[in-house]
Each structure stands twice: as structure tokens, then as C-alpha cells.
Amino acid sequence: MIQLNGVELAFRTFPNGETLVDGESISANIQDLNAISFKYENDSDLIKLMFVKSVLDERDKPASLLIYYMPYSRMDRVEGASVFTLKYAANLINSLQFKDVTVIEPHSDVTLALLNRSKAKYPTVELLEQVADEVGFDRDTDYLFFPDAGAQKRYSKVKGYKQLVGFKSRDFQTGDIQSLDIVGTVPAEPFKVIIVDDLCSYGGTFIRSAEKLREIGASPVYLLVGHCEKSIHQGTILTTDLIDKVFTTNTILDQAGHDKIQLFEIGGF
């Protein structure tokens, strides 16, 4: 999905797979300074983004870019024979010469390092207090849980909460978690936990985390993530009692699709 100054642009596809751009919808919404919102669904959206920016360039109209979810964020380094696809996606966006780029909830600092004139927004941090109030979170007795040190660093602006951190070993090629341990001390009495991270796919990390947390007395356990892929419906996170509720935004999902998911619309910030 691509919006130009708050209006969703229309695209169709020729029988051979080529994209047909609706030039009239672009022309009708061009301003002197333009704002493009980019919600990635598949790789064809990158081509559409290129077409829209090219039309603006031909008319000498600058534009800023808001990226709901930066594609290929997880491939932010090279291990073994892996390919640094985040770098190549960032190179494509850089070539379009946006005035500035805002990325919602980047997976790591690598995204911002690769994108020119970029900055980040973290809706998870902004939503945390709202979620905490909704679930009856007590800052004196309850805990936030970050599945790894990367998540803890990403949300370092969060203050005033007790924290636990996971230490996990993952196969970078397959994404499979090989082990997960919890670092930190917990009370003898049961306590609530909100797991906080940037992205949920099938939910394996969070299932493993919830299992470990419940072993040490956590109940209930909630999940707050900035991005949630549609593949959450194919995993077990929605069919078990390990995680009581999932809170997320509409950066990827268009609708919750399950009563266990609560979706926040972030709009265009």
C-alpha cells in the first residue's frame, strides 16, 4: 500500500504481471512538498514506490517517506552464505533521493545506518503505558521481558519498569531458536509480564519465552510488538494459553483476525 499525502494510490496489474500506475490519482494529490507512506506487502511494492517517486521527480516535487515496516530488516548482517538483502533494499530506497525517511520500529540500528537522512519512530514505546493500564500492570511487582539484548537496547527509552532479559541462541539461516534463558531475579509471588519486541512472525520466540516465564511464576503473560506478520495465524501463539493477549499495530496487519489480537492504528504519525 502506498499513500500520497494521505490518499491511497490505485495500482492494477497487466496479465503479464507488469504494474499499471494510475497517473491521475498521483496528479490529483501532488503538493509542493509531498508525504509518501509505504506499507510493504510484497516486493512489487518497491517497484510501485519507484514509479511514484519518479513521477514526482519529473515534476520537481520533493517528497518525504514514511516506511511502516522496512522490508528485509531481519537480514541486517552476513553470516556464512547469507545475503545482506537489507543493504540492497536500502540502496534502492536511497537511489530514489527522498528528502527524509522515517522508519517505524526498525529491527536494528543497521537500518538507520543504511538509509540516508533517516530517523525512527517507536509506537511500541508510546503504546506501552496504554497496554500496561489495560492489563492492570503494577510497576512495583510486575515485569517487562525483552527476548534478547537487542530488544532491550531498542527500547532503552522505557523507564520505570522492572525488566527481565532473554538470552537466546538462534540459527541465523533457518530462524529456529536453539535455546533461551532468562537473566534477572524475580519475586516468589506470581507476577504479570509484558513481552516487548519489534516483530512477531510465527511467534516461536514468544512461545519459548512464555514457557520459560511461566516456569518462574509469570501469570498472565502478554505480548506487545510493533509489527505483526499475517503468519501469526499459522503458528501456535493464538491456539495455546501461554500468551493471554497480543497487542500490535497495523504496520503489517490490516485487521486483527482473532479475538486474542488487539490492533492499534498508528496512522501516518
Task: Explain what you see.
- The protein is an alpha/beta fold and 269 residues long.
- Helix content is 25%, strand content 29%.
- Strands 11-10-9-12-13-14-15 form a 7-stranded mixed sheet, sandwiched between helices. Strands 2-1-5-6-7-8 form a 6-stranded mixed sheet. A two-stranded antiparallel ribbon has the order 3-4.
- Strand 10 and strand 11 form a beta hairpin.
- It starts with a strand and ends in a 5-residue tail after the last strand.
Largest sheet: 7 strands, mixed
The count of helical stretches stands at 7
Strand proportion: 25-35%
User: What is the first-to-last residue Cα distance?
Assistant: 16 Å
> Roughly how much helix do the residues carry, as a percent range?
25-40%
- Give the averaged pLDDT, no decimals: 91
Task: From the structure above, extract its key features.
269 residues, 29% strand, elongated, six-stranded mixed beta sheet, single chain
Q: What is shown here, in short?
A:
The protein has helices at 23-27, 44-58, 85-95, 109-114, 123-135, 149-154, 204-215; strands spanning 2-4, 7-8, 11-13, 19-21, 34-38, 63-67, 101-104, 118-121, 143-146, 162-170, 177-183, 191-200, 218-228, 245-249, 261-264. The chain is α/β, with parallel strands linked by helices and 269 residues long.
